[in-house]
Amino acid sequence: MTDGPLASWKDGSAKRAIVNFVNTVTTPGDGFVEVADRIATFDNDGTLWVEQPLPPQFDFVFRRWAEEVKADPSLAEQQPYKAVIAMDPAFFGGIATQDPEVVGTLLKAFSRTWEGTTPDEFEAQVRDWLATVKQPKLDKLYIDLVYQPMLELLDYLRAHEFRVFICSGGGRDFMRVFAEGAFGVYKENVIGTAAEYHYTDGQIVRGEHALGTLDVGPGKPEHIFAQTGRLPLFAGGNADVDIEMLRAAKFALLVNHDDADREFAYTSGADASLAKAKELGWTVTSMKDDWTTVFIPGGTK
Amino acid sequence: MTDGPLASWKDGSAKRAIVNFVNTVTTPGDGFVEVADRIATFDNDGTLWVEQPLPPQFDFVFRRWAEEVKADPSLAEQQPYKAVIAMDPAFFGGIATQDPEVVGTLLKAFSRTWEGTTPDEFEAQVRDWLATVKQPKLDKLYIDLVYQPMLELLDYLRAHEFRVFICSGGGRDFMRVFAEGAFGVYKENVIGTAAEYHYTDGQIVRGEHALGTLDVGPGKPEHIFAQTGRLPLFAGGNADVDIEMLRAAKFALLVNHDDADREFAYTSGADASLAKAKELGWTVTSMKDDWTTVFIPGGTK
Question: Where are the beta strands (DSSP E) in B179-226?
Answer without folding.
Answer: 190-193, 195-200, 203-210
